[in-house]
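Can you please make up a whole protein chain along with its backbone structure tokens because I've never seen that pairing?
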Amino acid sequence: MCETVDILIVGAGFSGLCMAIQLRQAGMDSFLIIEKAEEIGGTWWYNRYPGCACDIPSHLYSFSFDRNPEWTRRYAEQPEILDYLRAAAQRHGVALRIRLKTPLREAAWDEQQGVWHAITGDGVRIAARVLVSGMGALHVPRYPELNGLERFRGPAFHSANWDSRVNLEGRNVAVIGTGASAVQFVPRIAPQAGRLYVFQRTPAWILPRPDGPIPERWRRVFRDVPGATSRSGGDAFSAMFPAQRGWSGRCFSGGSKRMSSGFWEIARCAG
């Protein structure tokens, strides 16, 4: 038996959900999303390490057609982002078009028929005129090739497969790598560990992250004032990437002040 849809979307993270929502808004309803995980969210479902959060301001991190005025922090954390994606899927009517626990095993283009022939992990065959890949790579662990790693007898895991059963209190902990994930979880586990060693191959460029809670009075403005979330996102972008200026601490600080003043300017206008 072969199912037939116009469009088959692989992955139910930000990209896959965005594609599905836009299809519905364009009046195209013959589509299906297949997702290998047991829940939607993509990398925001898989990654659950301490401190997991977006590394750009929250108001830049949402669909342009579905701004979220309810972010509670300037840099939203994983549970809140996942909740946003779940709500967006329900709000835009695509949740029922998602088939979970359904990995893509293979897909081949049939030139004569003009369709893709896809086979899922459980053997279901799907024919689609268009195949859209929404597959990300940020949840796929990459382990270092270290001599003797297999002889280590203590708990060992990748940040993408964080083992919350392991109690780090008072223990010697070694972290290999200083990428975006390590930058977030190392400060969270440092107070717990007895000794913490961080191994870094290549130093990375970093910028201060002006994180903090978004007060209810600001969220009320974002809810009630048209364009407020877009304005705050624009101010945040200007603060992060000042046009034609150097990456200096003074430059970033000035941008941060502009971002904050932009928030309060909106609040004053609304008040």
